[in-house]
Model the fold of this input.
Amino acid sequence: MHPAHTSMKKILIAVTGGIAAYKVAAVVSALKQAGHDVQVAMTPAACQFVTPLTFAALSQKEVRTDLFPAHPTSEKDHLYPHLYPATEADLFAVLPATADIIGKFAYGFGDDIVSASALSLPATCPKLFCPAMNTQMWKNPVVQENVQTLENRGWQRIGPEDGLMACGTSGAGRMSDPKTILEVIQSNL
Done:
């Protein structure tokens, strides 16, 4: 066996609908090159920013985008995409984590593949989230309460950073650099 594969971990990367979604390609690529089993799940909004094909090519796996697959097979990951690979994940990371998905996680909603997968994770699975949103959204009291709720439940937050936003404003809300995110992921494996 190749030495890089001896410590192969099952990593579930969840992508949500923010412009920072394009930065996730670098994270998925680096994790795959490091020999990990990387599965990507995307919300419908994420698919408006980056295509599932991008992540399929980088992970060499079909990307999960739907709770109910159009063409289910008898394989468990096709019949129950909200359970597999989530129930077998060694690490779950959400990037970018929008205000919407943070709220869904905080209140236990499971109406898309990403939020349903989050509900299916093993208790021992490290859960990381990388907030990315407009500064005004980030500073909104309900968003801050939801972030606190996740952190109180053991979720680890990475960022956000201060900087220029895609919308033209500047301030807190920019997704952390892929290199920083990769360092935190590696330290949790």
About this structure: The longest helix spans residues 141-152. Residues 1-6 have pLDDT under 50 and may be disordered. The helical segments are 24-33, 52-59, 76-79, 99-107, 113-119, 135-139, 141-152, 178-187. The domain at 3-187 is CATH 3.40.50.1950 (Rossmann fold).
